[in-house]
Amino acid sequence: MLVFFCRLSEDWLVGVDLPYAWIKEEGERNDGVGNMALSTKYRFWRKDMLAAQESVALLANVILDTAHDAPHPGLSPGAADVETGIAYGYESLRWQRWASALYRYNGESEEGVDRGDAVFLNAVIGFRPEPPRYYEPDLMWLLEVNGEITWRSEQNSLGLRDSGGTELFVAPGFFLTYRNAALKGGIQLPVFSDLNGQQEASDYRIKVAMELHF
Fold it and tell me: Measured between alpha carbons, how far is 66 from 84 in angstroms, rounded to an integer?
């Protein structure tokens, strides 16, 4: 994933996400470009302390249906989706922690399926082995817990049996920054699954994102 961020003010960021997915199912590769997303983050509260800072921000993302020609149908659900939520952050020289809650409004697909909305809950702890030094690479190790709760999809006002449910993941990763560029990566490991009907539980997911800040 390639992410571009532009700072409109000290507290307001806007961004564009350009994802690419590597998917392997039943022994076959089925990769493709995912849907582009527009994002924004507005920090409305901040508390400065000695070598530390706390903040709370509002988040919003619009996931556009741009992956029409993707070989994997899951990369293009046939509708635009909207996410809104709130995030908390604490940052110090050694330790950092974040938490966020997002509600996702999933649109109706081209087949007339009203895809179930979802809630994403995330908690992250970050540890920096060495204090940051100006103009030098800055590495932080991360440990995340991610929860996904999805409602049943509907078609013709009838709930689809094999849709919706709850999944929980643990995700170790890293965050490497250098000046206005950042590289974030990790592996998301499923630890709990309670899906409705006959659905396969999620496998592990590997994600790498390059961020550029302007």
Answer: 20
